[in-house]
Every structure is written in structure tokens, then in C-alpha cells.
Amino acid sequence: MKIVGTDAPEVERALLSGGLACPNCAGRLHPWGHARERVVRHRDHQERRRPRRSRCGRCALTHVLVGEDCLLRRRDGVEVIGAALVAKAAGHGHRPIAADLGLTASTVRNWLRRFAAGAEAVRSFFTVLAHDLDPVLGALAPTGSAFADAIEAIAAAARAAVARIGLRAPWSFASAASGGRLLSNTNCPWAGAA
Ligand SMILES: [Zn+2]
Q: Which of 173, 189, 190 is nearest to 5 (CA)?
């Protein structure tokens, strides 16, 4: 899977012109049909989507093209997941967060656990990115929890990206920057990030 923009015609143009790179080997991706249809749950509506599938001309792996308003292997939009993460960083528990977002407690608990497991890698990655985007940014003050520090680092990088590159939804930025792997529970969640 590969994270791409949410403008479908623009993604299609990039794919057809060889402008998308393989997240595995950086080779050129070519059109390769479509993935099966899925429902994406946003904050206030649901959307049916049939993502494009691509195939690398070099390593021959296929990659479903996932919009940056989602994360890899998650049905809920990254804005929804991000809202849950921010609420947790502010001290709320998974049950009230789930009730507030209209989700099951087990779904939210799973997100929070996965994010907590990778929080230090997330904090480290987005802190470096924030300083790359804004060289005069000062040190980020520790909040007292690894979870909240990671959220603060994402927020700092997103603010720097807005200032440097222009308006963009903060959580879509976070998804694109991490290759959709914000909740990936691995030692190296950022390998292959585009
Ligand atoms: Zn490849």
C-alpha cells in the first residue's frame, strides 16, 4: 500500500505519467486495476471508495493507493483517529472518547494501544521533521507522557508544514509523512514512508 493525495484525478494523472514511486524500491508504479470497494468512515459521513491498485515496474509488487485522509488498514479516516489520539493525550479514557466519536470502545482502545506502543518512534520522527520544516523552531517541551509528547511533535510538524507549504489538514499531513503508519506497531514504522 502507498499513501497518495485525495484528489483522485490528480493521482490518476500521476500514476499514468509514471510520477508515483514504489514504496518498496522507488521504481515506477503503473496502473494495475482496482482494489475492492471499501467504506471510509469520516467524522460526519461515510464514503464508499474503490481505490486504485498499482504495480511496480521494477520489483513487481502491487500497491493499493490509499488516500492520505486514511491510514493503512484502518476503516476510519485519520481525522477521526487523530481526534481520539488528541483526546487521550488530554487525559481522557478510551470509553468516553469512543462514546463521543460514536465508535466501539474496543476500536478506540486498540488505536490508543498501538499508538502508545510506537509513541517514541512517532515523537522522534515528527520532532526531526518539525525542525527540518522550521529551522528556527525551539526545543519541544516534554509534557510528562510519551503519548502526549508524540502528539505534540505531530502538531509541531503540522504547524511548520502549514507555514512552509500551505494549508493542509494536520492529520492528513501526518498520514502522508508517516506513509500511513501512525498506528503501525513495528520497530521501524517509517520504512517506506513517502
Ligand atoms: Zn518496487
A: 173
